[in-house]
């Protein structure tokens, strides 16, 4: 279920929005790439970077996957159709991927969290992850480990 490594983000894809809080607050178990059903003015707004994933999450209901609470600021030059900025958006996944996610996401403590929105070959894509929430203790341990590694690198650089 992991997505294929396509190299660095600069090679053929452009990160539009990254949910940094997700990696801080959750253990990422698996991730998958999904398309999003969007209106034309939403695509233009996303290309400009007017998207926010902070409160967003995904659900699976009736064998369909949806993304909720992703805020897409309305495109300023749109004249006739302005959709709700936080509306429920359908995720475009294969049935097998949806069934796999549905089976795992029903386990206690697991949730579907969007990690980033990016553009590949002109298409808006979303990386969603199956994640388990970190406790306060886990986050503190991670911060302490990161600080220790930073200090070791600093000392090693000072010796050279």
Detailed description of the structure:
This protein has 160 residues and is α+β, with helices and mostly antiparallel strands. The chain has one domain: Small Protein B, Chain: A, CATH 2.40.280.10. It is 31% helix and 36% strand. It contains 4 helices and 9 strands; from the N terminus they run βαβαβββββαββα. The strands form 2 sheets. It has a 7-stranded antiparallel beta sheet. A two-stranded antiparallel sheet has the order 3-6. Strand 4 and strand 5 form a beta hairpin. It is globular, with a radius of gyration of 18 Å. The termini are far apart. The mean pLDDT is 86.
Summarize the structure.
By secondary structure, the protein is an alpha+beta fold. The chain has helices at residues 20-25, 40-47, 95-105, 136-159; strands at 13-18, 26-36, 51-52, 57-61, 64-68, 71-72, 89-92, 110-120, 123-133.
Find the CATH superfamily.
Small protein B
Nearest-integer average pLDDT: 86
Report the uncertain regions.
Answer: none
Number of individual domains = 1
SSE pattern: EHEHEEEEEHEEH
From the coordinates shown, what is the CATH architecture?
Beta Barrel
Radius of gyration: 18 Å
Lateral strand order in the biggest sheet = 1-8-9-2-7-5-4
Global geometry? globular
Largest sheet: 7 strands, antiparallel
Helical fraction: 25-40%
Structural class: alpha+beta
Report the top-level CATH class: Mainly Beta
> What oligomeric state best describes the polypeptide chains here?
single chain
Head-to-tail CA distance between termini: 43 Å
Strand content: 35-45%
CATH topology, by name, is Small Protein B, Chain: A
